[in-house]
């Protein structure tokens, strides 16, 4: 009888352990499934959804450098840096989209005078205020993934210079804007490195 009682006791203990551990395992599996789900970003872009601005944009490339800054050490855009037709990859919600049109691609510099250094926050605010005042909207403020960068490729972006604002080490700093008027679409893309320099690309497409 003692042996039978001992066997029954062990069987009950094993059954109890199984009942206790099963819910814990199921909970862990459920958590694992939830934490590995990655939201899919909406990368669709519809130019028709952007409101038409009635502002006078002025002369291409429309934006002068901020005060105390310059375009390759020039206070104004040099006509030599403007191409009638060129291509640049613009970021929209983390997706790189090729655009063609009249382009201006240049470094933004701050001449070293005393302790004044390139201030990325200051430059970003300057351009954003200007762009928004002209009726522009921001279309990218998220990091470009390495996979998306590699999808287009170094040859296209670097060798062919169609990604002048897309440094593979600074893909979390890409800010892109669009201004739409009744006769043109203007893309502006910025990449700014604090205390160093920055880069801007302006691309104009005629419409209508």
From TrEMBL:
<feature type="signal peptide">
    <location>
        <begin position="1"/>
        <end position="18"/>
    </location>
</feature>
<protein>
    <recommendedName>
        <fullName>Lipoprotein</fullName>
    </recommendedName>
</protein>
<keyword id="KW-0732">Signal</keyword>
